[in-house]
Amino acid sequence: MDGFQAYGAGKAGGVFDPVTFFRQPQTVVRILCWLFSIVILGCVANEGYTNRPEEDEEFCIFNRNQNACTYAVSMGTLCFLCCTAFIALDVYFPQISGVKDRKKAVMADIGVSALWSLVWFVGFCFLANQWQVSKIEDNPLNEGADAARASIVFSFVSVFTWAVQCLLAVYKFKLGADSVTFSHEYVDPNQQEAVEEVPPPEAWTGGTSE
Question: Which parts of the chain fold into alpha helices (H)?
């Protein structure tokens, strides 16, 4: 099986078209997920730590909970790397000739997208809760407030972008499964007629003698 029109891509070995690639909904959503992870990472890493005027040590802006900032920075970094890897896989995907390999790639996309949607939902709830219970006296100058709100907003939006990415991968999987099933069940009408026109074995031997 050469993978022709399997799982949303044509025959392996075709010429890569960047314009077509970047117009695909899956690529657009993937890039959005990639950008949102950069925003979350940048907001928390650069402006997510503050201190009181009389203190020298900086604490996490989210209720001084270091776990909140660590979660946002860690997940932002991992999400950025994951998006980069899957964008590279999307570029290489049409070159994969094996149908089974394409199927594994699409299934991995479904699982990873669903997982990241859950991760950002947890992150949104965690960050929003810690920001809500933050004390004004811990940050009297309100430093980094916009960055904190931005990280919460983009965490919330990331839940839906990754969910959409998961749905697109599911659609791609169903499309591929249907195309593979069709290729197995399809019979060329010309070949079918040729088979029907072949005479039975009795005609070759001139009939059965009693």
Answer: 18-23, 25-47, 66-92, 99-132, 145-185, 189-197, 201-204
